[in-house]
Design a protein that fits this description.
Blueprint lengths: L1 H17 L7 H28 L10 H51 L11 H167 L2 H23 L3 E6 L15 E2 L12 E6 L4 E6 L2 E3 L5 H16 L3 E8 L5 H5 L8 H15 L4 E13 L2 E4 L11 E4 L2 E4 L5 E3 L2 H13 L3 E2 L7 E2 L2 E12 L5 E10 L6 H4 L4 H24 L11 H5 L1 H4 L4 E8 L6 H15 L10 E2 L5
Parallel strand pairs: 1-5, 1-16, 6-15, 6-16
Antiparallel strand pairs: 2-3, 3-4, 7-8, 7-11, 7-14, 9-10, 12-13, 14-15, 15-17
Length: about 650
């Protein structure tokens, strides 16, 4: 289009020369400027195409900085392309406008040549005005082309700087990519070496495995061959043995048939003979049974009489009577040392007599047998024990001094025997209940007053459990009715319910703690005393009796209980008082002139019961376990010595009838 415009301008200039007018050189310069603009545009298009055809750097081979430079170059390239497109569009508009104006000028020139008047709106003045107008248009177009040329130069400068920056960034990116590629090559080389090593190891292992498989296959083949041979040999032996068994069975069947025949022949011969002797034999057995029918009752009566006479002898001698009771094994007692070590006649030991027990000391490998007045096994009940004790309760109402005390190691069941539980009462509540039952039965003939006290001996100090806050120092004194505790609170009671109420309060005040053997170990000696004064309504003769029910603290080895601090002091005082009790028993058994009652508060309080003029019953408690055999032996030996003590015949405490 520009070339056509140029030809038309040249044609106009030629016509102007023909008409005698000199055209301006501006148009020529403009044409030269147009050529330069076109050439520049072509060069810019080529550079733009070259930039667009360059491959972008790989993202995996460049770092974060090269990625940013590439993005920046792509943005600048898009901006340059947009500017070139805008310039091309502006040039197209310029060519269109120039073409329009030149067309108008040609029309005016044609009119001028034909002598026609110009169109409305066109300037008058003939051909000179038209030429001036054409020159003016060419000048305007020349200025526009110069402006476009300047803009193209600016774009060229920007493109050159962009190319330089792109070259630098691309060089840096290429360097980074080359460095990263080198690192990757090193990593690939290392991995290839490792892979080769692993492949070599795998080949060696595969070779070894193949060798092992071959060895195993050979071993399997050898074993199969041996097994086949052994199986054949075993089958042959079985067949041979089976033939022998069949031969033996045939012989046995023949022998069985012979035995059956012999048995039938024997029955045929013996049965008639047996019938001859059966009736006389039956009559003889009947006569023997008739003669022996009364021997069972006679034996029972003899045993009862022997027991009565034995008790009478003991009462006349005044011996301390000793019962032995063995508690049952508890649910948690299992494992080492929890086998039974104490045995009774009922345990399959017929050589043991009725009231004998045997204890096995596994540490020494020896067994010792003890005899007591009465023995109660683990299956015994509270009622059975009290049945043997009840006679002593009646003696207290008759004016005798009576003492019942439980002795044994910690955890052997002393407190349970003496107190029991709410559903299975022990000796203490049954005794108190029986006293008031006896008083009720005798009320027509006797009148009674009853006083009640409870004390504990803790760390060699006497404590009043019915009045624990009194703060008084309690001491043993000698009175006309024997020993008594000065300032001890005596509660007058008229019924069993009143006694139980007092007893409940006192029991809460008793000192108990836990140790390694017993969770609720009694840490004091508990003495429950009942004082009865009676009077015969007919004769006026009075009586005074004392009943002491004593639950001793448990004897214990300090190494087993794990006692420390206050518990250690308690244990030492308990063992000291029990040792003093043993000294008193030993002195009384050997009938020494001096008996050391005052060596302990316990023996001093119980002096009336351990000396003459009293009826005393000791219940020795024992655990059945092998691990407790040492402590059980100590308790049983002590009880055996106590059983030999003769206190003399007990005396009844009475007062003369009052004068009327």
């Amino acid at each position: 289009q520009i070339e056509q415009l140029r030809n038309r301008v040249q044609s106009l200039e030629q016509q102007m020369r023909t008409g005698g007018m000199e055209p301006s050189t501006t148009g020529i310069k403009a044409s030269e400027s147009e050529d330069r603009v076109l050439q520049e545009l072509e060069r810019l298009k080529k550079e733009n195409a070259s930039l667009r055809s360059r491959p972008a750097p790989s993202a995996s081979a460049s770092n974060g900085s090269s990625d940013g430079n590439v993005k920046k170059l792509e943005t600048e390239n898009r901006d340059l392309k947009k500017m070139v497109d805008n310039l091309t569009e502006a040039n197209s508009k310029l060519v269109t406008n120039t073409k329009t104006k030149v067309s108008e000028l040609e029309k005016q020139l044609e009119r001028y040549k034909s002598g026609k008047a110009p169109e409305p709106g066109s300037s008058s003045g003939g051909g000179g005005a038209a030429v001036e107008q054409l020159q003016k248009v060419i000048e305007e177009e020349s200025k526009a082309r110069e402006a476009a040329q300047a803009e193209v130069a600016s774009l060229k400068s920007q493109l050159a700087s962009a190319n330089a920056a792109s070259s630098g960034n691309e060089a840096a990116a290429a360097k980074e990519m080359q460095k990263a590629l080198h690192e990757k090559d090193k990593e690939i080389s290392i991995l290839q070496q490792k892979l080769k090593g692993q492949e070599d190891d795998a080949a060696i292992q595969q070779k070894n495995l193949k060798s092992q498989i071959q060895n195993l296959e050979g071993e399997q083949k050898r074993i199969q061959e041996q097994g086949t041979a052994a199986l054949q040999e075993t089958k042959a032996k079985i067949k041979k043995h089976a033939r022998r068994v069949m031969t033996a069975m045939a012989g046995l069947k023949a022998a069985q048939a012979a035995v059956k025949q012999s048995s039938a022949d024997l029955q045929t011969e013996i049965i008639p003979t047996m019938k001859q002797f059966y009736q006389p034999l039956k009559k003889a057995v009947g006569r023997i049974e008739k003669n022996n029918s009364g021997w069972a009752e006679k034996y029972k009566a003899e045993v009862a009489e022997r027991k009565r006479l034995h008790n009478l002898v003991l009462e006349l001698k005044g011996n301390i009577r000793v019962f032995c009771r063995v508690r049952p094994k508890l649910k948690h007692e299992s494992g080492d040392g929890c086998t039974n070590a104490i045995f009774f006649t009922a345990d399959g030991r017929p050589e043991l007599e009725e009231n004998n027990i045997a204890i096995m000391d596994e540490t020494k490998g020896t067994e010792k047998v003890f005899e007591f007045d009465r023995c109660f096994g683990p299956e015994s009940t509270q009622e059975e024990v009290f049945d043997e004790v009840e006679a002593l309760v009646t003696s207290a109402l008759d004016g005798y001094n009576v003492c019942i005390f439980a002795y044994g190691q910690t955890g052997s069941g002393k407190t349970y025997t003496m107190e029991g539980s709410d559903s299975d009462k022990g000796i203490n509540p049954r005794t108190l209940s029986r006293i008031f039952e006896q008083i009720s039965e005798r009320q027509e003939s006797y009148s009674y007053t009853v006083e009640f006290s409870i004390l504990e001996i803790y760390n060699e100090e006497i404590r009043d459990l019915l009045d624990p806050k009194s703060g008084k120092k309690l001491e043993v004194r000698q009175g006309q009715d024997g020993n008594y505790i000065q300032d001890l609170y005596l509660a007058g009671v008229k019924s069993y319910d009143e006694v139980i109420e007092y007893w409940g309060k006192a029991r809460d005040n008793r000192t108990t703690f836990s140790n390694n053997i017993n969770v609720h170990s009694s840490r004091s000696h508990l003495v429950l005393s009942v004082y009865t004064r009676g009077e015969n309504r007919s004769t006026g003769v009075g009586s005074f009796g004392k009943l002491h029910l004593v639950d001793l603290a448990g004897s214990e080895r300090l190494s087993r209980t794990g006692a420390t601090g206050d518990r250690l002091k308690e244990a030492q005082n308990i063992n000291k008082s029990l040792s003093a009790l043993g000294d008193v028993i030993a002195a009384a058994a050997s009938k020494q002139g001096h008996i050391p009652y005052r060596n302990s508060k316990l023996t001093h309080v119980l002096q009336d019961s351990l000396g003459q003029d009293s009826k005393t019953l000791m219940i020795v408690q024992s655990a059945p376990l092998a691990k407790d055999a040492g402590e059980s032996l100590c308790s049983l030996n002590f009880a055996s010595r106590a059983r030999s003590v003769e206190l003399g015949q007990a005396k009844k405490h009475t007062t003369a009838a009052k004068k009327k």
